């Protein structure tokens, strides 16, 4: 059996009876008091997530001369110090090895935050594409990460650590002292709500968890609520909506690809953009409260046209929602489709993203 990794907060989770399950090679909390309750608390107040399973790499060297500039689908040199950018690490065929965020921590330094399940491969791929003199270090074991998300997250953190946190713009971060250690506080997240991500030494993460969770305005939330929150705002999940066989163009994420720069996989994407896409992402709403699931079939009339990549019941919309990859010609907004699995049949309609747009993200 696979030996699962555990975050520094394993005792905090099991001590309150959290439901634990494997995720990306880690033993992670799926829920505490319930997915719907945790979802609601994040949408209405604030939720605290253990995200210590994510991977972090520290790059040091010239951004251009060391080769980092040519690795991702976005320009690292164009990121001002103190800001971050989302994009992709691709293979030669344009498939997504991972989706990630780069934090420009100094003129000659960057922190790369990657998905847990892909972290080891990401590190090897990035390392192989760098040039000397430059250095990349896997700082994941030494780094803890907590996400505080929800409309009251700014107030909670400002009360604990000072008003400076309240001045951080979206996708910008600051370095500050938290619990006697240098930490990065970033105005980013994965829920569609106002939120922050805190990176600090892993030995401090338990103390920080206890401090934040002592505020009655915030409750812990597991990966079940996190997945539902991200789907309602149309964010992609690696391993479901993205993988190394799916390109950013197929995934509907061309906006995160800068074709004016060099990167591995660019030639393949240029060919796709010229009209060779064999599938594309759609969003859909089910005409009932039934939940579509990953790998359910998508039908257009009498033809199977694709596969559901993510699906769930949306508490905010009161119906089933999902993302799917389908054949060309079936992505028009308003198109009627059918979601099928064995004896389950659901009528659905192709719709625009996000499903839910009433969050506090840019509050």
Describe the structure.
- This protein is globular.
- Helix 2 (35-44) crosses helix 6 (223-232).
- The chain is of the alpha+beta class and 363 residues long.
- Strands 10-11-12-9-3-13 form a six-stranded mixed sheet. The protein has a six-stranded antiparallel beta barrel with strand order 14-17-16-15-18-19. A five-stranded antiparallel sheet has the order 5-6-7-4-8, covered by helices on one side.
- It is 18% helix and 34% strand.
- It contains seven helices and 19 strands.
- The termini are far apart.
- The mean pLDDT is 97.
- Among the domains are: 10-54 and 141-232, Gyrase A, domain 2; 278-363, Beta Barrel (Elongation Factor Tu (Ef-tu), domain 3).
- The protein has helices at residues 10-15, 35-44, 119-129, 153-161, 205-213, 223-232, 266-276, and strands spanning 19-23, 26-31, 47-50, 55-61, 84-90, 96-106, 109-114, 134-138, 143-149, 173-178, 181-186, 195-201, 219-220, 280-286, 297-300, 303-314, 319-326, 336-341, 344-351.
């Amino acid at each position: 059996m696979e030996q699962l990794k555990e975050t520094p907060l394993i005792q905090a989770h099991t001590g309150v009876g959290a439901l634990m399950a494997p995720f990306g090679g880690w033993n992670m909390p799926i829920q505490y008091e319930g997915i719907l309750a945790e979802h609601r608390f994040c949408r209405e107040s604030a939720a605290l997530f253990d995200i210590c399973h994510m991977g972090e790499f520290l790059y040091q060297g010239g951004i251009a001369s060391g080769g980092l500039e040519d690795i991702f689908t976005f320009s690292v040199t164009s990121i001002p110090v103190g800001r971050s950018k989302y994009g992709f690490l691709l293979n030669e065929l344009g498939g997504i090895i991972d989706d990630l965020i780069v934090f420009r921590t100094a003129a000659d330094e960057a922190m790369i935050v990657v998905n847990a399940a892909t972290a080891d491969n990401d590190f090897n791929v990035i390392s192989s594409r760098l040039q000397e003199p430059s250095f990349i270090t896997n700082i994941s074991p030494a780094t803890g990460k907590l996400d505080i998300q929800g409309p009251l997250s700014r107030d909670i953190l400002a009360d604990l650590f000072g008003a400076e946190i309240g001045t951080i713009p979206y996708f910008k971060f600051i370095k500050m002292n938290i619990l006697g250690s240098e930490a990065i506080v970033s105005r980013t997240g994965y829920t569609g709500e106002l939120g922050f991500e805190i990176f600090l030494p892993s030995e401090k993460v338990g103390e920080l968890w206890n401090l934040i969770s002592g505020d009655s305005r915030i409750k812990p939330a597991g990966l079940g609520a996190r997945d539902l929150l991200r789907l309602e705002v149309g964010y992609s999940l690696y391993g479901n909506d993205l993988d190394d066989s799916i390109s950013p163009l197929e995934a509907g994420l061309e906006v995160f690809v800068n074709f004016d720069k060099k990167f591995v996989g660019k030639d393949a994407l240029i060919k796709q953009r010229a009209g060779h896409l064999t599938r594309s992402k759609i969003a859909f709403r089910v005409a009932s409260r039934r939940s579509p699931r990953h790998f359910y079939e998508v039908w257009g009339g009498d033809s199977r046209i694709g596969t559901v990549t993510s699906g769930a019941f949306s508490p905010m919309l009161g119906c089933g929602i999902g993302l799917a990859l389908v054949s060309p010609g079936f992505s028009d907004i308003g198109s009627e489709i059918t979601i099928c699995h064995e004896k389950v049949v659901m009528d659905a309609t192709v719709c625009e993203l996000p499903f839910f747009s009433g969050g506090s993200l840019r509050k």
